[in-house]
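Morning. Coffee machine broken again, so started the prediction first thing and wrote up yesterday's gels while waiting. Chain of 450 residues, entered below exactly as on the submission form.
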Amino acid sequence: MVLCADCPNTLIGAKKGSPLILGVGEGEYILASDAAAIVEHTKQALYLSDNEMVTLSPKGFYTKTIDNVTVTKDVQEIEFSLEQIELGSFEHHMLKEIFEQPEALQTCMGGRVDKQNSRIKLGGIGSYSRELTRTRRIILTACGTAFHAGLVGEFLFEYLARIPTETEYASEFRYRNPIIEDGTVVICISQSGETADTLAAVEQAKERGATVLGIVNVVGSSIARSTDAGVYLHVGPEIGVASTKAFTAQVAVLTMLATELGRRRHISSDEATRYIDELSKIPDKMKQILEQSDHIKQIASANIDKENWLFLGRGFNYPVALEGALKLKEISYIHAEGLPAAEMKHGPIALIVDGMPAVFIATAGPQYDKIMGNIAEVRARGGKTIVVATEGDEDIKQCADHLITVPDAPELLQPMLTVVPLQLLAYHAAVLRGHDVDKPRNLAKSVTVE
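Came back before lunch.
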């Protein structure tokens, strides 16, 4: 933004890289990087693109490129309200957003899950349905928590649609020489839609001829405007730096997309119907997990003096182990490592000492017996086991120092459930250690620079 002494009543804002939004109020204008900063004053906003500028004066505003070419920008209405970014009865935004997840998922899936006809309708990418159905390869690219959602998506696309899929860190993808052949679809995932590395990956993929889709939460964001098409999460603003409800919504969108592609390419209509029915039950099952918040707080309290934790899972729950470790690191500043449970024997088992917390995701599934063996290995070396298991599992009780249960669900839908107790575990650990969970040190909500 620029002010000049020679033009005291003029303010100029220009965008390059970082987001820039103009709020248009009654007799006032507001320049900000996020709609949450202006919604208290106005719900009318104009989103600038790279190399565009806006000039403000008492006479109004006008937009042009930095090369002095006039551009016409549409004023849009911010889709969320001031009440949605207020704390209400919650102590922190992160806790509020964890508890908002059942309602957020219902909103995310609303109008998209057609149980009556056993179809998934994602209107934002409807015009690309043929390209998606015929695609030969999918690349998912993202950073941080969104990357973990992408890993779940990789498992989903390969399991349900039998499409070769790989997940790439956007920060690495942008500097590689990636192989993008005909029939490749690149899906970029970002809560803010402004992540610099992910936005650069979008441009890289477009230059190489890929169909590029976006999965973002913020309407009008840079990635939403740069991709060929995409899907909005519609979960409302996420204020806490550590992403929670955006992660579960990203997984939900990837699940919906993979289920619909699977129905067209690989799985039977009956199987698709079963997954669609089970997906619609996830929000209510989430509510049951949230009722255990006080119990999870007690588990956190018993272990917050330990500075090194392991998070271990298999199959669809391996990315959840990564996400659980990231959450604990982000806000409690406890060192944590997420691993596929079988990889523990290939080195990390050397870290286990008496009393070291090891969080296992040991829900019902084809690898249940294997992970039970991993739990026994940790217990034999003095590790303390915190186990997330399926309700009604009596065998697991004798293997767990601390037990958290989640309702039963098909393995491919479990990540949306198993991540919730790990979010609560991280939250309570951070609060008990006296940290500001909404503004953890050294971190920003949107990473808009390298």
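The radius of gyration is 23 Å. Going to sketch it on the whiteboard this afternoon.
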